[in-house]
Amino acid sequence: MYRGKKNQPSNRARILECIFRNAPVARSEIAEMTEITPAAVTTIVSGLIAENIVIESEEPFPDDFSSGRRKVPIDINPAAFYSIGAEFTQKALVICLTDLKGSLIKHKKKPYSPQLAQEITKELILGITSLVDETKISWKQIIGAGIAVPGHMNSDSDDLITNRKTWSSFSATELEKDLPIPITYENNARCMALAQYLFNPSNSPDSFAFFHVGLGMFCANVVDGEILLGNNYMAGEIGHTIVNENGRRCECGKYGCLQTYASENWLLKNARLVYQNSSNTILRHLAASEKDISIETIITAYSMGDPFISKYIRDALKYLGIAASNIAITMNPGKFFLHGQYLDNPMIRSELLDYIDRQLLFIGRSYTSNIEILPYHPEDGAVGASALAVRKFFISPSAR
Predict the structure, then answer these.
(1) For a pLDDT cut of 90, what percent of the chain falls above it?
(2) Which among 107, 174, 228, 369 is placed 20 to 30 Å from 153, CA to CA?
(3) Hey, how many other C-beta atoms are within 10 angstroms of the C-beta on 56?
(4) What is the DSSP string of 86-107?
(5) What is the DSSP string of 269-283?
(6) In the beta sheet, which residues pair with residue 106?
(7) Is a pLDDT exceeding 70 seen at residue 55?
(8) Does the pLDDT at position 110 exceed 50?
(9) 3-class DSSP state for residue 209?
């Protein structure tokens, strides 16, 4: 199933989403794309302009040479309202305030610690409250907050479902009780995919795959503007697909899962073992102890030619390439986005694209033209959560 299909969005919601995806856009084009009558489009858009949600451009379309009434471009007014997004992982808690188009107004970051995890609900409340206070923006101007979670939310009980006990203290009920705005939740990779769809429309088709490689791994599939969910929590769990049946045991109980080779958690585990057991590794010159090794350390060691790290990275990229090509074959997404901190490295990026291309040679053309490795920013998950709030509380509050 697709989220939002039970209740069809209103004409107003369809028009707003059309503007988000196609602005600057004329009323006649909105009518054509949404199949809403021109008269209804004109009425709704006039109301949105009166509310200062939509603005008209003073300049007509540059290629409009018609002799009749000229088309007037309209767009979302990004400063009409604001949205809050937050993401918590075992890297950090990141909270941001964005405008309606995803531009960062202000953000703050608190590094992960066991104490942060034990008090994550309190930290979210304090962080969101202080962020709003610092910007001096009224709560009435904030449509709501999205929370990007490292797992899934149980829609019946608002419990966080994850295979780690790290976040057992998280309480959606307490968060909603103590904040004066509505709150919504979703898996962090799905949030990032939604940000790509809503905040970067010129670069994303209506259907695409978003493959996030972080401490864990997840592939969000967007189909006709809706995130594919399924009726359980398996959809998107690409990290638990098996790439080597004789591989290492994963925390899920299976052997040879993709994430045991390519996730940041497992790369860190392997790097720390190398540090402990080898005197020849470059890691010893980059970190004072195995506890100080980070993804940045691993990337640096790889760039400097550390043979141990190079092997782990090559294995990771090989299996990532296999997984990505399998997704391309089975889903044939309109576009394929890859995202992750260590994928930012130019050498790693080039090698991964080469692996994928070799897996898909039978197609007869280079599939990598359909693949984009997105730049990584620590705020990406929080901005994605903000996109979740914009869609749920601003674009289509009654249908989602």
Answers:
(1) 78
(2) 107
(3) 13
(4) EEE-SSEEEEEEEETT--EEEE
(5) HHHHHHHHH-SS-TH
(6) 97
(7) yes
(8) yes
(9) strand
Say whether the peptide bond before residue 24 is cis (omega within 30 degrees of 0). yes
Mean pLDDT of 176-184: 96
DSSP string, 343-397: GGSHHHHHHHHHHHHHHTGGGSS-GGGGEEEPPP-TTHHHHHHHHHHIIIIII-T
Between strands 142-149 and 152-153, the pairing is unpaired
Token match 């967007």: residue? Answer: 222
* Model pLDDT, residue 364: 62
User: 178 burial class (0-12, 13-18, 19+ CB within 10 angstroms)?
Assistant: middle
Query: Of 189, 196, 212, nearest to 21 (Cα)?
Result: 196
Q: Which two tokens stand for residue 224?
A: 């006709």
Report which secondary-structure segment, H or E, holds 290.
none
- Residues 6+ away with beta carbon under 8 Å from 167: 88, 117, 120, 149, 150, 151, 160
| Alpha helices, DSSP H, located in the chain | 11-22, 27-34, 38-50, 114-118, 120-135, 172-178, 188-199, 259-262, 264-277, 283-286, 295-303, 307-331, 346-359, 380-389
pLDDT in tens, 338-396: 999 999 999 999 999 999 988 887 776 667 788 999 999 999 999 999 999 999 999 98
The pLDDT value recorded for residue 67 is 53
